[in-house]
Design a protein that fits this description.
CATH architecture: Beta Barrel
Oligomer: single chain
Signal peptide: 1-19
Shape: elongated
CATH class: Mainly Beta
Helix content: 10-25%
Number of domains: 1
Number of strands: 14
Protein name: Outer membrane protein beta-barrel domain-containing protein
Distance between the termini: 36 Å
Radius of gyration: 23 Å
Keywords: Signal
Strand order of the largest sheet: 1-4-5-7-9-12-13-14
Length: 261
């Protein structure tokens, strides 16, 4: 909530500055493309297996069961991934920046410790497939430009707020002792939606009158709720309703190339 209040204040303040219409700092549009590494932190990076024993419900029943499944809420087991992004910004006068940011990131899942855990159970199993964490985002951006006296180097702290979607992170659990016995997700695989927040700093240098080369360092935050419906195949079994959540917490570091219109 505090971040949201600060964000609203910055937008209001920058709009007042824009209303002054400082003619000596005419606005320009800027288009940039970038990419880099997405480094998991906290819950997103954790490879702990604590919490794999959870109480879940049978489908069409109020009965609770203690089952083993790949819980992501506090331990998402995410590996280092990649990110690509596109921004369309308007340089309001000399200092303020408003824009739209589009992007996609992907992080594979580290299943090694999870498989050690599942393999030591009474009925040993292993994760034989797990969908990557693939996130698409659309966000509004506001930033403030600190330009050095030589006008070729710029520092730009920024805040983004918007909408993000996660590809359904389903997985298959396969029995080690009985070949062909697998626990799968039953039904559709809807994407999960979340509020998206990103705070960061852009450092850029002008390489010509039109082009800037920049380095970005930022922190990302989003929470994605989803529900799995687990069932054993072949032969069938009781379908279990397994609610879960992926908590995206990550550092993005990378480069970008910007063109001023």
């Amino acid at each position: 909530m505090a971040r949201l209040i600060i964000f609203i204040f910055l937008v209001s303040f920058s709009n007042n500055a824009f209303a002054q219409k400082n003619k000596t700092n005419a606005g320009r549009f800027e288009i940039s493309v970038g990419g880099g590494a997405l480094i998991p932190l906290g819950k997103f990076a954790s490879t702990s297996t604590e919490g794999f024993d959870q109480k879940v419900f049978e489908k069409r029943s109020d009965e609770q069961l203690d089952v083993l499944y790949f819980s992501k809420k506090n331990h998402a087991h995410a590996k280092r991934g990649g990110d690509i992004n596109l921004e369309v910004n308007f340089l309001v006068g000399r200092f303020w920046v408003h824009g739209l940011s589009f992007g996609q990131s992907s992080n594979a899942i580290n299943v090694e410790l999870a498989n050690i855990y599942f393999g030591n159970n009474q009925f040993p199993m292993e994760v034989n497939f797990h969908e990557k964490y693939q996130v698409q985002k659309l966000a509004y951006l506001i930033g403030y430009r600190f330009i050095l006296n030589n006008k070729s180097v710029e520092f730009r702290p920024f805040q983004k707020i918007g909408f993000s979607r996660l590809t359904f992170p389903f997985y298959n659990l396969e029995s080690i002792e009985w070949e062909g016995i697998t626990f799968i997700h039953e039904g559709d695989r809807p994407r999960s939606n979340s509020l998206y927040l990103e705070s960061g700093l852009l450092t850029s240098i002008s390489v010509s009158n039109r082009f800037d080369l920049g380095f970005t360092l930022s922190y990302r935050f989003a929470d994605f709720d989803y529900t799995m419906y687990q069932r054993m195949v072949p032969g069938g079994s009781t379908t279990l309703i397994v609610p879960d959540q992926v908590n995206l917490r990550a550092i993005m570091t990378g480069f970008r190339l910007a063109y001023k219109l």
